[in-house]
Design a protein that fits this description.
The complex is a heterodimer of chains A (485) and B (53). With 485 residues, chain A is of the alpha/beta class. Helix content of chain A is 24%, strand content 24%. Chain A has 9 helices and 25 strands. By secondary structure, chain B is mainly α. The chains are: A alpha/beta (485), B mainly alpha (53). The structure holds flavin-adenine dinucleotide.
Chain lengths: 485, 53
């Protein structure tokens, strides 16, 4: 019997565990370790943040699904990884600490034959002074953050109704934060809700971003064929913001937030400030900060993990100059180069470099987005890793038959721009590949025929449809495995 | 969305293309958007299928 341990039950880990169990059956063990008892469909947190969905619509308890599937669930957080075992065992293991009510604080060594690290990002509000829901800004990164943000938004709406003008600041809260898409969606949804209540004249909404140009979205922007032109996503994004009466500040790295005021440095090196009454800013992301040890108990964290805490995989980490970047720098199998039975999927793998061009202010501050890893690639990577591991175990395969390179894989992202079945909007955006491939597509870096950027009600319907489809899939309801990632 | 936005030169937000009434109409026209729903889903599926090699 083989044992596969999956750390994390987010989009990537849950997909991986589901396919592993489906392919391995009862003969082998699949264990999921995750500190939350819930699965959450993160993209719909945006709608929790504007009061259009309740928390229970975007989450469900994992144990019910895992019991049905025969997956062992440990509500715990992984703390250290021992890929060579230790003085007491030759088996690799991961140390975990339970957070469930019944076992809170208990620790355990969980041995594995294969380890899938799908622990996503650590939300590093602490890297920007004064940032985050415990300080001076709000967040929609988790369902509880989003719920809290909705409470705060309601207070602002009440004040506007009483005739008090409110300033909203939404965007990235760190000079190298990513996830612009989510913040952008939230800004549009807030504007839509305010306008629906006929309070636009009482609101000043500002989009603040570390992007060089709007529409970069951490992937160097994209080009879309529309209206007889090939147009940059900069134009598309600015047009949408303008339509929604949102002004913008770009090339801005927020370094400190005090009550009602955010301080930022621009790419020109200027120090500036912007005042607000309500602010939702995305923090920097890093890996979870696990430590790794060899058999002798020596710290090998820097062998297994990159300095940003994400796990090293089969990527090119040589630190090439922007001009030399290629899609071949990006991983294909997500296997750790030192320990072949360890994989990192979704946001947990260390990217070789950003996708956006690195930019530095005259003061030496890096101001550009880190590379995003959205839901679709996270799910696809989780699945191919599961397929490869299952084939190693069941068929004794030695080659990775399944690969997923972000320089070959496309991504679809629906940017919600207002929740209503009759008046809502969504921007449907697709790019292929995610990482531009200037060898294959010298002109635009991507397949222009496969790139879409369209605004309309259909986008909202698709986003809502995807919400129900992915929850259906994650709950393991009939034919779940047929639904794409 | 509310109509009659004032577009003035020398303001950054006035330079990008602004949707006309017709564009806004088609964006919310049920029949046209129903067609778009399937068309866009098809385009998304093409990318999804390509990604699952
Ligand atoms: C507000 C918001 C909106 C978004 N909207 C979209 C969208 O519209 N479309 C899109 O494609 N993408 C979207 N994204 C991005 C998408 O959510 C991510 O790509 C996706 O969640 C990444 O999946 P993951 O499994 O790698 O990480 P996560 O989903 O973050 O999962 C990580 C898992 O690891 C667990 N974990 C954490 N620490 C430990 C530990 N120590 N031990 C064990 N487990 C641990 C967590 O509890 C969680 O279960 C959005 C993101 C945000 C924040």
């Amino acid at each position: 019997m083989a044992r596969v341990v999956v750390l994390g039950a987010g989009i990537s880990g849950h997909t991986s565990a589901a396919f592993l169990k489906k392919m391995l059956g009862k003969k082998h063990e699949v264990i999921v370790v995750s500190p939350s008892q819930y699965y959450q469909w993160v993209p719909s947190n945006i709608w929790v943040g504007i009061g259009k969905m309740k928390v229970d619509q975007v989450r469900f308890k994992l144990n019910k699904v895992y019991n049905r599937w025969g997956i062992i669930f440990k509500q715990a957080k992984a703390t250290t990884i021992h890929p060579e075992g230790d003085s007491t065992t030759d088996s690799p293991f991961v140390s975990i600490e339970y957070v469930s009510e019944d076992k809170n604080g208990e620790t355990e060594k969980v041995e594995y034959d294969y380890l899938v690290n799908a622990t996503g990002p650590k939300l590093r509000f602490d890297l920007t002074e004064g940032l985050g829901p415990d300080n001076n800004t709000l967040s929609v990164c988790t369902f509880s953050h989003a719920d809290h943000t909705w409470n705060e938004l309601q207070k602002r709406i009440e004040l506007m109704k009483q005739g008090k003008k409110q300033r909203f600041l939404i965007g990235t809260g760190h000079p190298t934060a990513t996830c612009q898409g989510a913040a952008f969606e939230y800004a549009l949804n807030v504007a839509f809700e305010i306008r629906k209540r006929k309070l636009s004249h009482m609101a000043d909404i500002t989009w603040i971003t570390n992007e060089y140009e709007l529409g970069d979205f951490g992937m160097g922007g994209a080009y879309v064929k529309r209206g007889g032109y090939i147009t940059s996503t900069k134009v598309f994004t600015e047009s949408v913001l303008s339509e929604y009466d949102i002004t913008w500040i770009k090339r801005a790295g927020i370094k400190k937030v005090e009550p009602g005021i955010a301080h930022y440095e621009t790419l020109d090196g200027e120090e500036k400030s912007v005042e607000f009454d309500f602010s939702m800013l995305i923090p920097a992301f890093t890996g979870q900060g696990f430590k790794a040890f060899n058999k002798q108990g020596e710290d090998i964290t820097d062998v297994v993990f990159a300095p940003n805490g994400f796990m090293k995989v089969d990527a090119d980490y040589s630190g090439k100059a922007f001009e030399d970047w290629s899609i071949n720098d990006w991983p294909q199998t997500y296997q750790n180069p030192t320990y072949s039975n360890m994989y990192a999927t979704g946001i947990a793998f260390a990217p070789p470099h950003s996708i956006s061009k690195p930019m530095t202010s005259p003061n030496g501050t890096k101001i550009f987005p880190a590379p995003p890893r959205t839901g679709m690639p996270s799910g696809v990577i989780g699945k191919i890793v599961a397929q490869n591991i299952a084939e190693f175990i069941k068929k004794g395969a030695t080659e990775h038959k399944h690969t997923a390179n972000m320089g070959r894989m496309g991504a679809a992202c629906i940017v919600s721009a207002g929740y209503s079945l009759t008046h809502g909007q969504g921007a449907t955006m697709t790019v292929s590949p995610i990482v531009p491939d200037y060898e294959k597509y010298p002109q635009w870096g991507r397949d222009i025929e496969a790139t879409v950027g369209e605004m309309g009600l259909a986008g909202h319907w698709i986003k809502l449809f995807l919400h129900y489809m992915f929850i259906h899939k994650a709950k393991g309801y009939p034919l779940w495995w047929l639904l794409p990632e | 969305m509310e109509e009659k936005k004032e577009l003035r030169a020398y303001k950054e937000e006035s330079y990008p293309p602004y949707p006309t009434k017709a564009t806004k109409f088609w964006r919310r026209n049920f029949i046209y958007q129903f067609f778009k729903f399937w068309q866009l889903n098809y385009k998304i599926m093409r990318i999804v299928v390509k990604g699952h090699t």
